[in-house]
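Milestone M4 deliverable, item 7.
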Amino acid sequence: MRIPLQIPSEKEFDAVGFGLNAVDHLIVVPHYPEFDTKTRFTQYDKAAGGQTATAMVALRRLGLRTAYAGRFGSDEAGRFGLRSVADEGVNLDYAETIEGADTQTAFIIIDARSGERTIIWDRDERLSYRRDEAPLELASRGRVLHLDAHDPPACAVMARAARNAGTIVTTDIDNVYDGLPELLPLIDVLITSSEFPHRLTGISDLRASLIEAKARFGCAIVGATLGERGAIVLCEGEFIESPAFEVPGGCRDTTGAGDAFHAGFIYGMLRDEDLESCMKLGNAVAALKCRSLGGRAALPNVDELREFLR
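Output delivered:
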């Protein structure tokens, strides 16, 4: 199926992102600990993460021109996170460092048996954007604008400016935030975590909830990532499912797999691939991301992706 969107061909960047960055502390344990017990971890890593920043890095590794707008703290973690994005060659003209603020931090417990993770996080409110603080100039400079919707009023301003300039708007959402009803009608591609459609609509059946989300907000494509089951999307009245790939060497860490899926999907869109191929690319990038512990270090480059798909 062809994607029913007209993606612009001439922009300064292929993709621009507005949203979160974070520093993750990843802890691998033999099994998830029971309450009031002590468990010795088997591996630890400190890695840069965050939904939008990770997606922009992933797209840059795949050879595309990307830019990222988001706020870092002035602490050591902020310097680490900022440096990790800059070192990948992502444009940071619209990134900010907020003096006195702490960078978003997550402690992630990974079960060694499956690679599945539990995330414990905090975000300094000083990193949030008000509506009038959104970097509007960036919104129209990419062929695609990717959002994670953590500051919905600011994201809505960005999305409206992007669409007015012909830019396609995609988003990665996993929670319901205040202000989402204003933002969601401005989204072209709404692919979320598997739990989000239920949270949004109150409908437990996934397909029925996706139908309801599309009816309410009019997004061209709605869908969900399903972990080891791959992904599903609804487009022009048809459901399309795409199975997950087996992770090379076994899944070690699912952290950032959803971010990676979005990068692969957007990569396919920008290459004018059909919808099925975009989903396949999303699942492939996600599988390669899960092959080792860590944040962006496990993201594939374009040669690794091509080799994997042979």
